[in-house]
Write a structure and sequence with these properties.
Layout (H helix, E strand, L loop, with lengths): L16 H9 L7 H10 L6 E10 L2 E9 L9 E6 L6 H13 L9 E5 L4 H6 L21 H13 L3 E7 L5 H14 L13 E5 L5 H11 L13 E2 L2 E5 L2 E4 L15 E6 L9 H22 L1
Parallel strand pairs: 3-4, 3-5, 5-10, 6-9
Antiparallel strand pairs: 1-2, 2-4, 6-10, 7-8, 8-9
Helix pairs in contact: 3-8, 7-8
């Protein structure tokens, strides 16, 4: 299905800086990073280590960036990285990471080092947006000399830790607004014709083509199915236009695409895709699904890796 013309730019022509500026001016603050996210991070200072790893300075404001860590990181323990809010509008990614940090991280600290970056794109969180203020998608920007400061900051921080990661779990959502707003905006920005995809009705995972670990993904799907429904494939056995590798799982070439889950050498990686617009899913269910992914991954690694 082709979407109608986007209101910014000239059809068939890539955006110039004026177009990007017009897009930026059309955005507005809809919620508070400080109230919704930073306040919850600060509540955890007595149990977890809170560290500021960077700061974003935009015309729209200044945003400190934080990680939460289990106490006393130990190079002899396997290290798990959990990221949320790479796309700031994907709410349960942010709050699923925070919920896990609050309720469960310490339970696993004897076996693992756990690092949680709950909101990589705070301006995107506040404006309910996929891009940063420069109309750059952070989740296509995880590579050397990244144009997205959100991506560059977390990559530099993880590198500075000098810890070998065994797993990286990146928490996302697929929303109906992908078709109503974000894919049309992308086509306009790139000067291409937009073709919307079928929004999967339910949860699914995106594995890395180069290290898919299918059994790892399968176990997570099985556990998440206890919390929320798993998306069936479409009539072409696809999810978001990509062939389904197994029930509820597709593969992407993560590093080639500049995806967050591809920037480390961790052998176990996955990107979650929760569906918050389902008529049967609540906000709480979406958060619990994200938490279930993390717990399932940790259990699998503890038993098999």
């Amino acid at each position: 299905m082709t979407h109608s013309t986007y209101p910014i730019g000239t059809p068939g022509t890539k955006w110039n800086n004026n177009d990007k500026g017009q897009w930026f001016k059309s955005q507005s603050i809809k919620r508070s990073y400080q109230n919704d996210v930073v306040s919850l991070i600060n509540e955890l200072k007595n149990s977890l280590t809170v560290e500021q790893y960077g700061e974003l300075n935009y015309a729209a404001g200044t945003y400190p960036l934080y990680v939460l860590k289990t106490p006393q990181l130990d190079k002899n323990k396997p290290t798990i990285l959990i990221t949320g809010g790479v796309h700031g509008y994907e709410t349960s990614g942010v709050h699923g990471a925070l919920r896990f940090a609050k309720t469960s991280a310490l339970q696993y600290s004897e076996q693992f080092n756990i690092i949680v970056a709950p909101c990589i794109s705070p301006w995107g969180y506040e404006t309910i947006n996929r891009w940063n203020p420069a109309a750059i998608d952070p989740n296509r920007s995880f590579y050397e000399n990244s144009p997205a400061p959100e991506s560059a900051a977390i990559m530099a921080y993880v590198k500075s830790l000098d810890l070998e990661l065994i797993a990286h779990i990146d928490l996302h959502e697929t929303t109906d607004s992908d078709n109503s707003e974000f894919r049309p905006a992308l086509a306009a920005r790139e000067g291409t014709t937009n073709t919307n995809w079928n929004i999967p009705d339910g949860f699914y995972l995106v594995a890395d083509t180069n290290k898919p670990e299918p059994e790892f993904q399968k176990v997570i799907i099985k556990d998440v199915a206890k919390v929320t429904h798993i998306a069936p494939s479409d009539e072409n056995n696809q999810l978001i236009g990509v062939p389904q590798e197994q029930f509820g799982v597709i593969n992407y070439a993560a590093r080639d695409l500049g995806l967050c889950m591809g920037f480390t050498d961790a052998p176990y990686v996955t990107t979650t895709e929760v569906y918050p617009d389902s008529p049967t899913a609540t906000d709480e269910e979406c958060i619990l699904a994200q938490v279930a992914v993390i717990k399932s991954a940790l259990k699998y690694i503890r038993e098999n890796a």
